[in-house]
User: Fold this.
Amino acid sequence: MEPLRSEADLAALRVGRVRSRGFVLGSVHPMGTCRMGVDPALSVVAPDHQVHGVDGLYIPDAGFFPTSLGVNAQITINAFAMRCADQMIASA
Assistant:
């Protein structure tokens, strides 16, 4: 599907048949905003998912990924969240 550039294009869209594959859609998973690492100067989250220097604050979501994975990360996020929960229980 061509981009809409004028009122005429919009009018053609209203009367025309639009198929779902004619649209380009995108999605964003916020990843890489709180990188994981051992050095607090280079990362926000320690390998146990706890924020450096803030006891009891954990980030078990995709924020600690180094960058966007380019694929749906739901299963990976769930696995890391379970790992984080296990580590939180073990440290309690």
